[in-house]
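Predict the 3D structure for this chain.
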Amino acid sequence: MSYGNLSKNFNVREFSCKCCGLTIIEPRLVKLLQQLRDLYNIPMQVNCSTRCYEHNEKIGSNENSLHLCGWAADVTFIGHPMHEFDKSLKKLHDEWQWGGLGTYAAKNFAHFDVGRIRTWEG
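Done. Predicted structure below.
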């Protein structure tokens, strides 16, 4: 498998399961993250994207998690606390209607997915 770039700022390895390397990548998710990266002009770290079933169960995530099919990513804006982006991300989500947006200010990350349209705070 090539570990080359998927876009200008993201590569395959970032989207692979952290425990086993399983890689399932939904191109719409990569496109969304790259658009956000370009808009904010701030480096983003993909903390978690694809998860195998074992990893998903180990961390206590939902058995229907979109991480299992490569449709979701948890992301940190490097050098910036999540609370700086809460309002602007919600506004963008309303405008772009991309799927799911979960903001976790206390844990300093946001969940992005290309599933059904919804928002929440964690």
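Residues 12-102+114-121 form one domain.
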